[in-house]
Amino acid sequence: MRSIILTFAFVLAVALAPSAQVATPITVYKTPTCGCCGKWVEHMRQNGFAPKVTDLPNLSAIKQTTGVPPNLQSCHTSTIDGYAIEGHVPADVIRQLLKEKPKVAGIAVPGMPMGSPGMEQGGVKDKFNVVAFTQDGTQKVYASR
Predict the structure, then answer these.
(1) What does the DSSP 8-state code read for residue 4?
(2) How many CB atoms lie within 10 A of CB 104?
(3) Which is deepest, 10, 21, 110, 116, by most CB within 10 Å?
(4) Residue 18 backbone zone (phi > 0: left; psi -120 to 50: alpha; other: beta)
């Protein structure tokens, strides 16, 4: 009888335990000296992603290969599930992209707006857009913050 109770208690504990979530892999290309890029990588870790970081002295080739238009470029470029992620895109917007799977090449936060993930500085928070872009050059606002 005791073994039945212990078995039941174990099965119940396993069933009620929070399931371990596997972090979503993302590849990040950045320069080795960029502090805000490191903060964005930490933002991604804290939000369930597993960044694989590659430090490069120059990101021009990565930006060109991933199709990031010059007017949308920022300080780091990432790739995930066939999409390019340019700059300080919030983790929740990347999750939205992965869920919706729009027919775009990627999304970008151009420049380095204050208050975006990795660019936090006190209470300063600029409004910014996350822009979706396609390989043919079409751009549209995907999300606003």
Answers:
(1) H
(2) 20
(3) 116
(4) beta
CB 26 within 8 A of CB 51: yes
DSSP secondary structure string for all residues of 100-139: H--S-SEEEE-S--TTSTT--BTTB----EEEEE-TTS-E
- CATH fold of 23-144, please? Glutaredoxin (3.40.30)
DSSP assignment of 63-96 equals HHHHT--GGG--S-EEEETTEEEEES--HHHHHH
State the pLDDT at residue 5.
46
* b/e map 128-141, b = 16+ CB within 10 Å: bbbbbbeeeeebee
Residue type at position 3: S
Closest CA to 130 of 51, 60, 117: 117
**pLDDT tens digits, residue range 105-131?**
999 999 999 999 999 988 889 999 999
> Residue 144 forms beta bridges with which residues?
129
Kindly state the tokens that stand for 111: 């420049």
CA distances from residue 70 to 73, 124, 134 in whole angstroms, order as listed: 5, 26, 13
